[in-house]
Amino acid sequence: MIQIFDEAPAGLQPAPHDPRVIAAGYQVTVREVDFGAVDDKDSVMLAFLAGLGLAQSFGRNWDALYDVLSDPGVWPPKLAILLCDYGHFRSRHARLSSDLDRVLLDAQAEAARQDRNLWLLIEEPDSDPNAW
Question: What residues does the Barstar (barnase inhibitor) domain cover (predicted)?
Answer without folding.
Answer: 29-122
